[in-house]
Specification:
The protein is mainly alpha-helical and about 55 residues long. The chain is built from two helices and two strands; from the N terminus they run H-H-E-E. It has a two-stranded antiparallel ribbon with strand order 1-2. Helix 1 packs antiparallel against helix 2. The longest helix has 12 residues.
């Protein structure tokens, strides 16, 4: 966490910085953000899609 805080202080928070912080926390060098297509937020009760983020 200290390395992540240092990175943010030195520059702005970017997707690459956030991914680097997550990889350190999870101790998983292969961790990736939305590596699979088909990600969406759904209403638990109805299963209806609420939001589908752009792919890419």
């Amino acid at each position: 966490m200290f390395e992540g805080a240092r990175d943010v202080r030195q520059s702005r928070l970017t997707a690459a910085t956030a991914l680097s912080i997550c990889r350190r926390i999870k101790d998983d060098k292969k961790l990736d953000v939305r590596a699979n297509s088909g990600t969406s937020l759904k209403n638990k009760a109805t299963g209806k899609k609420i939001y589908t983020p752009p792919e890419g």
